[in-house]
Structures are given as structure tokens and as C-alpha cells.
Amino acid sequence: MIGRQNFDFEEQLIFEHGSKGRSGVDLPECAESQAAAIKVLGKHLRTEEDQAQLAECSEPEVNRHYTRLSRWNFSIDTNSYPLGSCTMKYNPRINEWAARLPGFAQLHPYLPESRLENAKALIEELRAYLGEIGGFEAVSLQPAAGAQGEFTGMLMIRKALEARGESRHKVLVPASAHGTNPATAAFLGYRAVTVATGSDGLIDMEDFEAKLDEDCAAIMITNPNTLGLFEKNISEVCEKVHAVGGFVYGDGANLNALMGISRPGDWGIDVMHFNLHKTFTTPHGGGGPGGGAVGVCKELAPFLPDSGEQSIGRVRSFWGNFGMMIRAYAYIREMGAGGLKKASERAVLNANYIKAKLKKAFDLPYETDCLHEVVFSDWKQQKHGVSTMDMAKGLIDRGVHPPTIYFPLIVHGALMIEPTETESKEELDALCEAFLEVAKEGPERLRLSPFHTALSRLDEAGAARNPILVFKKE
Ligand SMILES: *Cc1c(COP(=O)(O)O)cnc(C)c1O
Q: Residue 288's pLDDT band (boundaries 50, 70, 90)?
């Protein structure tokens, strides 16, 4: 069994800690400035009563409160986190060291460019590294996440078509696509048209050719796709889309399978986003900052957010999430070209190890060799009344974050497992042990799990819509 999370705390709100007048810092008296403020603002000065109602706590109270809350989080620093398509790999501490160097951390984004020389040099070098890794002519680091990278890339495609005097209405999206792909297409006013997946888990070429025509602005394609399989017809797909004047958008979220092995730009992809918070080990948000750099081919380079006259314009304030760029840069420099290639090879090896250990216990809908993730279905367990949801909840009791579930949609009760290269063999064995346990556990107990969390099964949709943030144990 992997170490369990401790979810047993009860915790008051920060406002319920402390007492009036208590403070963690000693500030000098400000009688003079108060008098000056009264002179200028008169009766418009805020009174004691309508001051902002801030918590009044000592430093230990604040520190303990937030440290306790942080221990409620399931994180990559405490347990393995095999969330398919999300590449939850360990965030090396050297990245944090680099990002906290005062010369970077204390830069103000409004500083004149002449004072930002070193930061700009890092940005330029990172753009060049990503261009080299992906096989692209130019890169912008502005987008803050993968989905915003998609939006940026599709805006460039639209602008490039406009520059040719064309307006097109369709975007092809394979059935195995991430939900953000059709959402991006729709957001830009395109009609997202689904291309079927064949029995081998790859694009159905007949269906693709039937739907491809001169009204197609682009195809948005993830490779390896969300079944973890390499689209081996990718170059043919690119050629055919180019032949009708369309563009190929590559969703690069799964680049962790390919670094140093194969380059999307070389297949014929015109524009692709990188997820710095997946492939390049920067932390995954919790709503915080990410990085969705976009790389483009020569034809699209003039339209980049940081290009000249033909640019689509800025998509992010200042320079983007600079702290994430420092971390990604530190990771690339730390690994070197050979290290990045090894990371991808091990990510693929780890996924195939899991596939081999679990394929007797779970139904494997696509036999094709997988890359960095493997997708099972719940067909075998369904027969005894156990669903993917039950197994996911059972995994929580075993100290494992559930994998991505019910995605991709083309797999019944999908369990999509991505171990990443940063898990050791012992960790993978423990992970598989947990999966094997829930695969054979009967429905009576599994349907009531998790048992080891403060709350068990929530109404998840209801909880998201009506979050009651004060937690009181009965
Ligand atoms: C994560 C992911 C995205 C979206 O990236 P965000 O950074 O979460 O916006 C898009 N496509 C695929 C395949 C992904 O895995």
C-alpha cells in the first residue's frame, strides 16, 4: 500500500482564527499620514467600520492554517498521480531554485526593456529550444495554458486564411480529441466536424477523406492521440489537408512521448501548443499559472502574437507567465538533449509496463502498442456490477489518485493511465497492485468507497454548483 493521505483535519476559516488587534507584523504608527489623509479626503476617508475586514492572526496561526490546508491536497509531492493526458510528472526542485533567484523573481514587468536583458535572453533561448524540440520556425511564449495556445493557434490560422482572401467554416476533429479542441473551434465560430476512429484506435482515413474539402480551415489533431497511440498516417493527413489549402493544428499536450524522438514540425504540422506544465515539469495550476507556448511553421510566423504588422495581437499581458518559463528553461538545461530523449523513452516504457501488468485484469479496447499512456475499459467489471467510478473511488482508499476516467469518450468507462517517467519501478508496482485490487473487488464494498477520506461520495455536480466552503463534521 502506498502512503495514505491525511484528510482527517477539521479546519476553521482564517477569519475564525486569531483575535481583534492581533498581527503577525509590527508596522510603525501612521498618525501623521492619517492626519494628512483627513486633510485631503475629509469625510470621504473610510471609517474604522468600513475598513476591509481582514483576518487578524499571528504568524504561527497563519502558517499552521495554510500548512494544514495544504495537507488536504493530493499532490505529486505526496503520492503518485497517474492522470492520463495530464502528464503529472514530478516538479524538480532546481526549477524552484532558479525561479526564486532574486534577479528574476523581483523583476517588475513594467521595467524598461533595457533593464530586462537577462530575462529577455532566457525567453529567446527557451523559444529556440522549443522550436528545436518541436521542429518549428518560430515560437511564442505568451499563451498561459494549452487551451489558450489552441485559441492563439486557430486565430493565426484564421488570419492566414483571411490574408489569402479566404473564409472557411469547418474544422475537422478526430473522435479521440481532447474536449478543448472542438471547444476552441466552436469558440472561433467554426463548425467542429468529428472524424471517426477506426478499430485500430487511429483516424479512420476513409471518413477523414470523405469530410475533407475546401471549406476546411484546419484539422486539429493530437499525436500521440488520447488513446496513447501514435497516428502513423500523420504525414499523409498533413499532405491531404495542405492539398485543399487547409492547415494542421497539432495538439502538443502529449509531447512527453516524443521529445528527441520525432518532431511534429517534420510531419507537416503547421502550429502546435506545448504544455510547459505537462511536458516541461512546471507545476499544474490549482488554478494557478501554466504555460501554453505555440510553435509555428514559416507561413504562420508573421501572425504570432509577438510578430509585427500582421500579428493577431497580444493574447496575454506583459511577457506571459515568466516564472513558468524560467522553470521550463531550467528543466531543459538540466536534462540536455539526451536527457529529454531518455525522459520520453522512459515515459513510454513505464506506460507499457503498466499495460502489460494490467491487461489481464482489465479489458483493453485497442491492442495497438501504446506510447506514454494506456487506456482500459470497465467491460469486465461491469459484468459484476462494478463501474469505473467505483474503482476510481476505491483507488483513493489505496493512496492512489484515480486515473483520468470516462475519457476519451469513445471508450466505455475509460480508465486512462499515464504514469510518466518520474515514477520508479517500485512505485509502478505499488500502483499496479492498487489497480489489481480494485479490479477484482466485489461491488458491495467498492460501491461505498472511499472509506478513508473525511467525506465519502459527494454529489459531484451539486458540489461544484453549490460549494459550501465551511466544513463541519456531524
Ligand atoms: C491538457 C490538454 C489540453 C489543454 O491544456 P490546458 O493547459 O489544460 O489548457 C489540450 N489537449 C490535450 C490532449 C491535453 O491533454
A: low
